[in-house]
Amino acid sequence: MKVFVTGVGGQLGHDVLLQLRSRGHTAIGSDLLPPCDVTLDITDPAAVKNAIAQAKPDAVIHCAAWTAVDAAEAEENREKVFAINAGGTENLARACKAVGAEMLYISTDYVFGGKGERPWQPDDTDFAPLNVYGQSKLEGEKAVARNLERYYIVRIAWVFGKNGKNFVKTMLNVGKTHDTVRVVNDQIGTPTYTWDLARLLIDMIESKRYGYYHATNEGGYISWYDFAKEIYRQAGMQTAVQPVTTAEYGVSAAARPENSRMDKRKLSEQGFEPLPDWRDALSRYLKELE
Q1: Residue 210: active-site member
Q2: CA 192 to CA 283: how far, in whole Å?
Q3: CB–CB of 93/37 below 8 Å?
Q4: Looking at 105, 110, 133, 225, which residue is catalytic?
Q5: Do the domain assignments include residue 244?
Q6: Selection from 130, 55, 136, 37 nearest residue 95 by Cα
Q7: Residue 234 forms part of a structural domain
Q8: Cα(137)–Cα(159) distance, rounded to whole angstroms?
Q9: Number of independent structural domains in the chain
Q10: N vs C: which end of the chain shows fewer Cβ within 10 Å?
Q11: Which CATH number is 26's domain given?
Q12: What is the pLDDT along the chain (290 residues), one digit of tens a residue?
């Protein structure tokens, strides 16, 4: 297959590009800035149309996004956030339609309201995003479904990978200079290792089993506090982790969901191999950082 990948400068796009090529696919990587195969501003409809028309891919894996959740709340950034996450996605969906390509869109648990303890189902429609980032990603989902018939919408959460900033790297860095860290224990979900996720995404585009999916690593639902404790345990660091509520931790610019539990049974039901246990993923990731 020929696959066009956006956002290859980020954590997920970087790994998707590597794995596509290792599996024998022709992969074209794009980002706003080099190094990449195609320099592309996804908010420019003409540029997107031209890039996809020239590439003529069988599929587009859309990893590019505004992901700075707190910064998205700033009044001066909101228009840009929607231009990237909603408008950019619409541009790509229309370009895919024009060349007959399928599209895989990366979304987020943040499209849901985050209340209760019931795991969110892939086909749930009771959306109630708590912040600008979640609202913009939901609009991106709608743009894909509005323009295409052959698409995958894959919601992920708590992402960590080699090529970018993430919670694991932050905890490791903070642990070098602090004996104790405060981490919230009332936001519940599951981490997602980009290397594992990239494998699944490629499996998906090879399958033609379109639809909405949830994809995080296996291993049960945990809090950020639990995650931090395991990071330090596996890293052999003595940093103590103090559990606090979101309210005790302090108000951030963007509201965060308490319930990021996502039901992933649809993956197995559709014949996909689930992602490994998050503890195993963390172990492999820490070795990758060495």
Answers
A1: no
A2: 13
A3: no
A4: 133
A5: no
A6: 55
A7: no
A8: 15
A9: 1
A10: C
A11: 3.40.50.720
A12: 999 999 999 999 999 999 999 999 999 999 999 999 999 999 999 999 999 999 999 999 999 999 999 999 999 999 999 999 999 999 999 999 999 999 999 999 999 998 999 999 999 999 999 999 999 999 999 999 999 999 999 999 999 999 989 999 999 999 999 999 999 999 999 999 999 999 999 999 999 999 999 999 999 999 999 999 999 999 999 999 999 999 999 878 999 999 999 999 999 999 999 999 999 999 999 999 99
Beta strands 188-189; 222-223: pairing state: antiparallel
37 domain-assigned? yes
The answer to whether 225 and 233 are in contact (CB under 8 A) is no
Which range of residues forms the domain containing residue 138?
2-165+190-218+260-276
Helix (H, G, I), strand (E, B) or coil at 241: strand
Domain-embedded: residue 116: yes
Strand ranges, E, within the chain: 2-6, 26-31, 38-39, 59-62, 102-108, 151-156, 159-160, 180-184, 188-189, 192-193, 211-214, 222-223, 240-244
